[in-house]
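Database export, one record per block. Field names are fixed; values are copied verbatim from the stored entry.
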Amino acid sequence: MSAAFFVVRATVPDIAVRESFDFWYSREHLPDALKSFGAAKAWRYWSASDPSQHVAMYQFPDMAALDRAIEGPETKRLVADFNRDWPDITRTRDVLVLAEELVA
């Protein structure tokens, strides 16, 4: 079994809303999604090469756990909450499966 990751990329082109988006994602959305998905861990990133790009990653023990999480009713609620609060911010989603991990 390999770890699986659910990745959500959001484009926040309006610099005037980035601070409030960042606060909302940190205080509301990320903790809610972590708990609702039952993910093991969650991370957020802002791109250093394109400041409009925000990335959230959720780690699951395997694909079966990830599939259960994103196919469940909580995902629809999380998407609806995002769309309600940030209707002009576009997102893409991706699923990654860990192929290899090296630790120094």
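Remark 1: Residues 6 and 95 are 5 Å apart (CA to CA).
Remark 2: Residues 4-97 form a domain with the Alpha-Beta Plaits fold (CATH 3.30.70.100).
End of record.
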